[in-house]
């Protein structure tokens, strides 16, 4: 999924990667293009994890992991960081999800009755970044659908997701609902519909392989 | 007769230590803004000193609530906090216990909204409209307004009674420079305090900081403390192989 998501990156993009699987997209950035990673705690030009012995407690990412700077990196305040995000200056955000609706509503921050940790910067990212792509397993651990007609969990944002990359397929959120544009190897249209709680259309490119 | 240079009192915002720097400016029920992201860039010495004042019923605007036994987590253990205004509090089990028991109130605030609330409060702007949170729990009971066909919600600026921040370098006039991502909320919190106290690792004389490189001008800082050896705990040490 992370490798497929990396194909969404274009030369010159400023990109924010969410915590978890989205972080792995950084390992698959296509050769020959320049992508600048933004971390919302105040860093543009995030590099890989440091070598042993080069750990700097003053240099972490939004997941609170120790990181490094690439050449040309900059650091700034939280207000400036979110001016980039809310002001529409970030080209792409790749985030995880609990649920996505056919209208592009996203739920990824709380489950009522369970421990609530907070939304962090997720609501700002989905409302401000130009393009929002979700990467997620197609269904939850217990097999229930994550792609739905309407989200049942508290929302992070409404009509904010443009594309969803799952382990089974890639789909776009269109005015007419979910449209599958790619199927993973061995996945049938029938199988996909069975694991999605919304009606889905298939573009001609969604070929069973 | 011209006074000799050494007779002139030296104007300084530097206080002997964190404890004395909080003298006379803390009271029960006050609203604080505290810098830091996770444990990165937190005002360690000032948080310890605040705990030792015994002040209670605090409302604290801070992105996170520390961890068990460190940072703002210290103030939770002693039950000095009544309410947190935060975007993410996931790393603290004492927090969770008090929250679930109803001892602690939490206002979840999106991270960018929180930063902007501090920035706005410090700039004399009582409220602003943002798209962040529209259509979510965050928007409940807030004014909605349409600008050019897009819906926004009204969020309030934060004017804190006291702001506590952590800098890397400072001069005794309170000019501050932060280091790397330890900057985070610190410059924004610094502006929104009616009183702002900063701690810094390195203190220099006026003139030694390049004016072009100062992040927080000294006007925002009222008291300054030297903390040359902060612990700087790391929440998640992640490394790669050479």
Characteristics:
heterodimer; A: alpha/beta; Glutaconate Coenzyme A-transferase; 13 strands; B: 242 residues; alpha/beta; three-stranded antiparallel β-sheet; 27% strand
Characterize the structure shown.
Chain A has a single domain, classed as Glutaconate Coenzyme A-transferase (3-Layer(aba) Sandwich), CATH 3.40.1080.10. Chain A has helices at residues 2-6, 21-24, 78-86, 122-128, 189-194, and strands spanning 14-17, 36-39, 43-47, 68-75, 92-95, 99-101, 106-107, 131-135, 147-148, 163-165, 169-174, 177-183, 200-202. In chain A, strand 2 (36-39) and strand 3 (43-47) form a beta hairpin. Chain A is α/β, with parallel strands linked by helices. Helices cover 15% and strands 27% of the residues of chain A. Chain A has a 10-stranded mixed sheet. Chain B has helices at residues 18-21, 44-53, 73-77, 93-100, 111-122, 186-192; strands spanning 14-15, 31-34, 58-61, 81-86, 105-108, 127-130, 144-147, 150-156, 160-171, 176-177, 193-204, 223-226. In chain B, the strands form 2 sheets. In chain B, strands 1, 2, 3, 4, 5, 9, 10, 11 and 12 form a 9-stranded mixed sheet that branches. The longest helix of chain B is centred in the middle third of the chain and has 12 residues, at 111-122. Chain B is globular. Classes of the chains: A alpha/beta (209), B alpha/beta (242). Chains A and B meet through helix 3 and helix 4 of A and helix 5 and helix 6 of B.
Give the strand order, joined by hyphens, for the main sheet of chain A. Answer: 4-3-2-1-5-8-10-11-12-13
Q: SSE string of chain B, helix = H, strand = E?
A: EHEHEHEHEHEEEEEHEE
Q: Mean pLDDT of chain B, nearest integer?
A: 95
> What share of the residues of chain A lie within helices?
10-25%
- Give the CATH H-level superfamily of chain A: Glutaconate Coenzyme A-transferase
CATH architecture verdict of chain A: 3-Layer(aba) Sandwich
Shape of chain A: globular
- The figure for the number of domains of chain A is 1
Rg measurement of chain B, Å: 19 Å
Helix content of chain B: 10-25%
* Shape designation of chain B: globular
Count every helix of chain B, treating DSSP H or I runs of 4 or more residues as helices. 6
The total of helices of chain A stands at 5
Give the terminus-to-terminus CA distance of chain B.
67 Å
Taking pLDDT < 50 over at least 5 consecutive residues as the criterion, the unreliable ranges of chain A are none
Q: How large is the share of residues in beta strands of chain B? A: 25-35%
Largest sheet of chain A: 10 strands, mixed
